[in-house]
Amino acid sequence: MNDAFSVPQEDTAAAAIEEIEAELGLFDDWMERYQYIIEMGRKLPSFPEEWQDDVHRVPGCQSQVWLEAEERDGKLFFAGASDAAIVQGLVGLLLRVYSGRSREEILQTSPSFLHDMGLVKALSTNRGNGVEAMAQAIRKRASI
C-alpha cells in the first residue's frame, strides 16, 4: 500500500468522532480549534504530486482538494490533500474518521457530526460547503 493513505488511529469511525470531539473540547475558542485542525492536516501523509490533478479533484470545494482511495482487505483507505492549510486540516479530520473502514461503516457514518461539533457553522459558508463535499465524495466512493 502506498504511504500516502491514512491509517486509522481509532478502532471505529464512531470512536474517532468521539475522540475528535473530546480533543476540540479542550480548547476555549474557535481560533485555538482551527490551529488544532491545521495541525491535523500537517500530520497527513505526503500526497503524491501526480495525484494533484482533475481526476482526483473534489468538486464543490473553494480550495483545491484531492482524494484517492484504495481498497485492501475489505477496507477503503483514503489519501487526501489541499492547497489551503485549514482545508488540509479538515481533510485530515475526515480521513481520521473514514479511512481504513469498511464500505458499510463509511456509509453508516453520517457526516452530520460536522454539524454536531459546530464545525460547519464555525467555518465560512464556502469552507462549510467544501467539507461537506469532501465527506460526500468519500461516501460516494464507498457506495461504488
From TrEMBL:
Residues 23-140 form the Fe-S metabolism associated domain. InterPro entries: Fe-S_metab-assoc_dom (IPR003808). Pfam families: SufE. Belongs to the SufE family. This is Fe-S metabolism associated domain-containing protein.
